[in-house]
């Protein structure tokens, strides 16, 4: 009386369209995660690793703790950093957050042309 009759549904193999419709959102979500999260993060990690491996004596660095100093010695896994005159600390190499670029010395030919430009500007001003 209180129990209703249950009828079994016909066993359908499911069409390929149904399978595609159920798997497509999952594939789409994975693709979005890969291109927006996983790939940029791995690129950033590679750049950080290359930057840390390229540290040499004389580079100005910033540690993860915010200490700014000049590299005085590079050991395997460690870096000695001068943070003030007569103050040297040893830092784990992986804790270096960034390397500040060193000034690149200019070629003598570019210095000469820059000086020539300055002289020509002075000559023009003196003529006027």
Describe the SSE topology.
Blueprint lengths: L15 H38 L6 E4 L4 E7 L3 E7 L2 E6 L3 E5 L7 H20 L1
Antiparallel strand pairs: 1-2, 1-5, 2-3, 3-4
Question: What separation lies between the terminal Cα atoms?
Answer: 114 Å
Which band does the percent of strand residues land in? 15-25%
- Biggest sheet architecture: 5 strands, antiparallel
Give the rounded overall mean pLDDT. 81
What portion of residues is helical? 40-55%
The strand order across the widest sheet is 4-3-2-1-5
**Rg of Cα set:** 32 Å
Give the structure's gist in a few sentences:
This protein is an alpha+beta fold and 128 residues long.
Characterization of the model:
Helices cover 45% and strands 23% of the residues. It has two helices and five strands. It has a five-stranded antiparallel β-sheet, with helices on one face. It is of the alpha+beta class.
How would you describe this structure in keywords?
single chain, 128 residues, alpha+beta, 5-stranded antiparallel β-sheet, elongated
């Amino acid at each position: 009386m209180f129990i209703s009759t249950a009828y079994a549904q016909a066993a359908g193999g499911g069409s390929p369209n149904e399978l595609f419709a159920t798997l497509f959102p999952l594939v789409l979500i994975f693709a979005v995660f890969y291109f927006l999260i996983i790939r940029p993060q791995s690129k950033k990690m590679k750049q950080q690793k290359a930057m840390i491996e390229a540290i040499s004596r004389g580079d100005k660095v910033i540690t993860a703790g915010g200490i700014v100093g000049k590299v005085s010695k590079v050991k395997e896994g460690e870096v000695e950093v001068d943070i003030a005159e007569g103050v040297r600390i040893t830092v784990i190499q992986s804790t270096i957050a960034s390397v500040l670029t060193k000034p690149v010395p200019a070629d003598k030919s570019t210095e000469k042309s820059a000086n020539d430009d300055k002289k020509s500007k002075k000559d023009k001003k003196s003529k006027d």
